[in-house]
Amino acid sequence: MATAKNQAAWLMKANTPLQVGDAPMPTAGPGELVVKNAAIALNPLDCHMQDSGVFVQQWPAIFGCDVAGEVYEVGSTVQRFKKGDRVIGHAINLVSGRPQDGAFAQYTVIPAEKAAILPDAISFADGVVVPFALEAAVCVLSLQEPGVAMPGVATPALGLPYPSLQSVPASGKVLIVYGGSSSVGSMTTQLAVAAGTHVIAIAGAHNFDFSKRCGAAQVFDRKDPSLVDMVVEAIDKLGLPHFVGIFDAIATPETYTHDLAILAKLGGGHLACVHPPPTDVPANVQAGMIFAVNDIAAPVWKDYVTPALQAGKLQCLPPPHIVGKGLECIQGGLKKSKAGVSATKLVVEL
Ligand SMILES: NC(=O)c1ccc[n+]([C@@H]2O[C@H](COP(=O)([O-])OP(=O)(O)OC[C@H]3O[C@@H](n4cnc5c(N)ncnc54)[C@H](OP(=O)(O)O)[C@@H]3O)[C@@H](O)[C@H]2O)c1
């Protein structure tokens, strides 16, 4: 039998185009899988990594976070998967720095505890939109204690329950998701709602339906000049006992201004952000930044993802926009990602 050959889209140094070339064939260590990738997704983080080399620990680098494909090799101690299984998974080059842990390759190593079987009815291109956003969403919602996102910046600790496969009663908790049409914002909406949380989303008017499809109970227009007052009024009217706070999936000076104005009117709460939060927050605001690689997501990967996908409770949203087939298409996809997307995830098929 011919030995498989690997290829990758390499970053030779910061701020240069990716170069497709041969790569060592990875092997699965204990607790790991090697996945033969059929689809990979692109994230804004990839553009930052390419431009600045941030998080790169070893040059040349292979990065990328989302894979979908077939299990090619199973490491010792792994019980849940076998060769040939269709899976989605979160590749963690971001923290390990190892090139074999980057998604932008034909074969990628992923931790088995950050993988789940993809039901046959779901295509690889659809499934690959889930992994990184899912882990980010669990990091937003379910940490019980603040950890360290980066030196001097704490992670948020909203302490909300994991999503449930059952229909759970409304918990009376209310969360604002700023950026309800983004990949991380929409996934956070889905998981929060599946834990009984009432989600109020902020999104573009053209994405109201999309946010509602993810489970948001109410959506407000990001461009409405009365945004702050409308959101506060909606929460007051609900009369629900537990306002949790805001997840800001956009995290710009503009959104921070709105966040702090809303929290000031509501008497404080959590402010969970995808980037470092504002430093000058009042004492009644618990601000933090997520770091989306965390063992907290392991039970969700293990017990929730596959049955929830099967039942349609977890939807592969935002839908993929396929930018091409082959590793050569990643560079063009990253250019598109930098230009910005609306309620979609850019995907390259292999
Ligand atoms: N810290 C971490 O661990 C971590 C993990 C994952 C992602 N991130 C960061 O999180 C951010 C989001 O990533 P993503 O992949 O979810 O992004 P994305 O899907 O590419 O975000 C695009 C969406 O954001 C919406 N949007 C843009 N500006 C907005 C605003 N002011 N108000 C409301 N919605 C707005 C757009 O809506 P329109 O259609 O209206 O334009 C669009 O639908 C990125 O900066 C990424 O680097 C951080």
UniProtKB/TrEMBL annotation:
Keywords: Oxidoreductase. SUPFAM superfamilies: GroES-like (SSF50129), NAD(P)-binding Rossmann-fold domains (SSF51735). Residues 13-348 form the Enoyl reductase (ER) domain. The keyword Oxidoreductase applies. GO terms for molecular function: oxidoreductase activity, acting on NAD(P)H. InterPro entries: ADH-like_C, ADH-like_N, ER, GroES-like_sf, NAD(P)-bd_dom_sf, Trans-enoyl_RdTase-like. Belongs to the zinc-containing alcohol dehydrogenase family. This is Enoyl reductase (ER) domain-containing protein. PANTHER family: HYPOTHETICAL OXIDOREDUCTASE (EUROFUNG), ZINC-TYPE ALCOHOL DEHYDROGENASE-LIKE PROTEIN C2E1P3.01. The keyword Cell division does not apply.
